[in-house]
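Z., the sequence and structure:
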Amino acid sequence: MPFPTGLIEVRCSELQGKGLFARVDIPVNTVIWRFQAPAGDKNWENLGDGENQHYCMEEVLMMETDPTRLSTLLWGGYMHDPSGRYIELRDGDQYTNHSDNPNCGGDWCKNPADEFSITIRDVKAGDEITDDYGVHRNNETPWLAALFQKYTPERHAFESQQVTSYPRGYVTGLGGQQRETGKAVLVDYNEISANSSNSSVNA
């Protein structure tokens, strides 16, 4: 159950389909999502219909035998840059919409199961939660881009035309002015292994 209880809700979005919205004011540096809830912590809720998963390239390609299943996977996930695995979001985080000036983001973790998202500036109650899809590099990963183009052409077209792709290793807003403005910045993968356990963000 990867959202802090009572913090976020799913509503219709003016950006695209459904979106995530803050139910209360959320200060900068607050953890608003985790791939999986901390063990034994009951103060998290699932806003979707299942548990998050992650897959290697071969596992994703095998799903071509079930185009409907593969389309659902591709619509609701992203490439995990450090590991090269594809994260499937089922907990509600698949409703996070893109913005060139997002209000959430955070460091990459080496293990997909340790992924988390934080507010990179103060978020007001009612604001939509957004991230920058450009750091995910979905269309920059050849095998994944080919699947997007074939099974989810609308998403492929949107990310090709509306999303600025960054070089490998970038994250959304990391400290200082970059965090305030939501600009992507380059990080060293050797420095991110303990992000999820050593972060000083609120939870």
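The two ends are 13 Å apart (CA to CA). Residues 174-203 have pLDDT under 50 and may be disordered.

Let me know what you think.
H.
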